[in-house]
């Protein structure tokens, strides 16, 4: 009677755990009460060979009787790596099929099935139709998702381009306006001699419109000293400091000393004390140590 | 492609001529001579396989059996075996059906499948555990092959490296290699069965051989493989000397029965609860031993 497929025991199976002795680490020790049990591994090579000799087919049998081929390479693939494992099996099948084809040609065995040979197949036509339908559906899904993705990307890109174009247009308009305004302001004095400067005016307009103005010597070039925001506000803000200098406000009507005489004295009194804004050495040292 | 057909027709005609023996003048003379000396018998491979299962088989196992029956034309399918304990009936059944091989699918507990491959009169029997069964019905197996066509059987080199591997290869050759004279065998070679030993298990695959017309008109046709199915993994457990009985000549040391695996898992799960409860009891005891007397300045004493 074939035995069960568990390990064979020399003694009784007890409730205690079965631990492999050669797997115990040095730190652990075996209790003295433990019954040593041996798992019997059988590999009776002589008997296996004898049996094989009894059953094997005569070696004079032609290849066409069994159609057995051996793959000459060993497969060393990680079992869990599905892709490479299946690839290895595929390679084995391919190699064996090619080998078999050459052997079949040698033994005059018909190998390739002609396309007009109709006979019952292992899978029914209805089943093959289902398979084909599934493949088509899969292909269609992939295509559809690809198209949708392209559309989405295209929309984003198109929107971007549109925004950029609008901004560009606005910018160039503003630019033009500013240049013309500048030109107008500069040419305010043109009202004095209206005739002589016609050519110059045209040249100046052309210059202003063009992107690259002709090289002219200019005072403070584009790389010169930049006036900070605050200073510029004071100088040009609200029409400049001189715009409101002669307005009648409450403060100006109330003050009787508002005049150049008064201004000179205030200036003189201020300058004596003006330089002492810097804190003394002691305060500076204290601030330095603190920071 | 046309040239291929011509060679095939020529080959078929040659094979026919040999068998039927169109009597020409030379051959009649030859036959007389042959009858005087005993003619060397043409060696033939005669194999028939009995295919059956035990009771308690699931639908997946049943489909696997049907797939094997469709693939191998020299197989005779029989009804279910009633009891799993009287395996000695199997060689008798095989004898009744004129079979010299048996493939017996034993289903245990409605979830484990074991496969016995045996040579029935006195031969060895191999018991294997079947896992990872994918049948031909799965829609990912897109290939198709002729029903009853003889397939190429391809073995890995690892089979020749161990004694039990060589015996298994021999037994599988008899079972899975379709003999040329099988009644339902069809002429062309359509598919290939591959057996590979990987991680001490036997992996089975079945591919359809497709030869497409080459891109260059005079080159060889391109061969591609498409999986037809089924596919499964066999773990050899034991090899017995007799058919379903006899002494063990090989046992696989790495095999752990699936029932043992399941019980080990469940025991691990149960351990968690037991460990937690033990830890709780221990904690209670520890708290008891570490209890100190009430301090003089404790609230209850001061405000008694």
Structure characterization notes:
Chain A: Its main location: nucleus. The complex is a heterodimer of chains A (291) and B (304). Chain A has 291 residues and is mainly alpha-helical. Chain A has helices spanning 45-55, 63-66, 82-106, 125-186, 198-209, 229-236, 250-254, 260-274, 281-290; one strand at 68-70. Chain A has 9 helices and 1 strand. Chain B has a single domain (49-261), classed as Rossmann fold. In chain B, strands 1, 2, 3, 4, 5, 6, 7, 8, 9, 10 and 11 form an 11-stranded mixed sheet that branches. The interface between A and B is large, with 73 and 87 residues.
- Overall 3D form of chain A: elongated
Oligomer: heterodimer
Q: What proportion of the residues of chain A form beta strands (DSSP E)?
A: under 5%
- Helix percentage range of chain B: 25-40%
Supply the helix-strand structural class of chain A. mainly alpha
Any idea of the CATH class of chain B?
Alpha Beta
| Structural shape of chain B | elongated
- Helical content of chain A, roughly? 40-55%
Structural class of chain B: alpha+beta
Order of helices and strands of chain A: HHEHHHHHHH
Span from first to last CA of chain A?
A: 93 Å
Q: Please state roughly what percent of the residues of chain B sit in beta strands, choosing from under 5%, 5-15%, 15-25%, 25-35%, 35-45% or over 45%.
A: 25-35%
Second rung of CATH, namely the architecture of chain B: 3-Layer(aba) Sandwich
CATH topology of chain B: Rossmann fold
How far the N terminus sits from the C terminus of chain B, by CA atoms, comes to 111 Å
Report the mean per-residue pLDDT of chain A as an integer: 78
Tally of separate domains of chain B? 1
What's the count of strands of chain B?
A: 11
Number of helical segments of chain A? 9
Keywords (chain B): Nucleus, Ribosome biogenesis
GO molecular function, one term (chain B): rRNA binding
Main location (chain B): nucleus
Subcellular location (chain B): Nucleus, Nucleolus
């Amino acid at each position: 009677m074939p035995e069960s497929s568990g390990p064979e025991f020399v003694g009784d199976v007890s409730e205690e755990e079965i631990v492999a002795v050669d797997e115990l680490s040095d730190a652990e020790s075996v209790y003295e009460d433990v019954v040593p049990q041996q798992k019997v591994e059988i590999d009776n090579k002589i008997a296996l060979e004898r049996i094989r000799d009894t059953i094997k087919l005569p070696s004079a049998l032609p290849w066409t009787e069994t159609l057995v081929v051996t793959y000459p390479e060993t497969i060393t693939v990680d079992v869990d790596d599905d892709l490479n494992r299946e690839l290895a099996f595929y390679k084995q099948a391919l190699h064996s099929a090619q080998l078999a084809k050459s052997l079949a040609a040698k033994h005059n065995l018909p190998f390739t099935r002609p396309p007009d040979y109709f006979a019952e197949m292992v899978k029914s036509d209805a089943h093959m139709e289902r398979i084909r339908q599934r493949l088509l559906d899969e292909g269609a899904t992939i295509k559809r998702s690809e198209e949708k993705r392209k559309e989405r990307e295209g929309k984003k890109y198109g929107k971007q381009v549109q925004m950029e174009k609008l901004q560009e247009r606005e910018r160039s308009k503003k630019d033009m306006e500013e240049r013309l305004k500048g030109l107008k302001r500069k040419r305010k004095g043109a009202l004095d001699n209206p005739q002589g400067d016609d050519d110059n005016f045209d040249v100046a307009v052309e210059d202003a419109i063009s992107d690259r103005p002709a090289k002219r010597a200019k005072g403070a070039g584009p790389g010169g000293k930049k006036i900070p925001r605050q200073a510029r506000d004071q100088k040009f803000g609200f029409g400049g400091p001189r715009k409101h200098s002669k307005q009648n406000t409450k403060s100006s009507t109330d003050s009787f000393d508002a005049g150049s005489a008064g201004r000179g004295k205030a200036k003189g009194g201020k300058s004596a004390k003006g330089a002492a804004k810097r804190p003394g050495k002691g305060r500076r040292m204290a601030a330095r140590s603190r920071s | 492609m046309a040239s291929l057909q011509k060679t095939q027709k020529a080959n078929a005609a040659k094979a026919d001529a040999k068998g039927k023996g169109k009597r020409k003048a030379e051959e009649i003379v030859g036959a007389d001579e042959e009858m005087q000396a005993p003619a060397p018998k043409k060696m033939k491979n005669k194999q028939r396989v009995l295919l059956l299962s035990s009771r308690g088989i699931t639908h997946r196992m049943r489909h696997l059996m049907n797939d094997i029956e469709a693939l191998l034309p020299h197989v005779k399918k029989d009804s279910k075996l009633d009891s799993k304990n009287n395996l000695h009936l199997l060689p008798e059944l095989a004898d009744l059906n004129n079979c010299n091989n048996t493939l017996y699918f034993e289903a245990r507990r409605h979830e484990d499948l074991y496969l016995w491959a045996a040579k029935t009169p006195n031969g060895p029997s191999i018991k294997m555990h079947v896992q990872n069964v994918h049948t031909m019905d799965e829609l990912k197996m897109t290939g198709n092959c002729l029903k009853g066509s003889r397939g190429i059987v391809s073995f890995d080199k690892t089979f020749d490296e161990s004694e039990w591997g060589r015996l298994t290869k021999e037994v599988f050759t008899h079972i899975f290699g379709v003999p040329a004279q099988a009644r339902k065998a069809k002429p062309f070679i359509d598919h290939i069965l591959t057996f590979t030993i990987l991680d001490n298990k036997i992996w089975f695959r079945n591919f359809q051989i497709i030869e497409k017309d080459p891109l260059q008109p005079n080159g060889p046709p391109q061969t591609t493989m498409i999986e037809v199915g089924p596919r499964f993994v066999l773990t050899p457990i034991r090899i017995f000397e007799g058919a379903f009985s006899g002494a063990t000549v090989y046992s696989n040391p790495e095999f752990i029965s699936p029932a043992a695996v399941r019980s080990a898992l469940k025991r691990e799960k149960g351990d968690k609860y037991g460990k937690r409860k033990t830890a709780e009891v221990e904690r209670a005891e520890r708290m008891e031993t570490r209890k100190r007397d009430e301090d003089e300045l404790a609230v209850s004493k001061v405000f008694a």
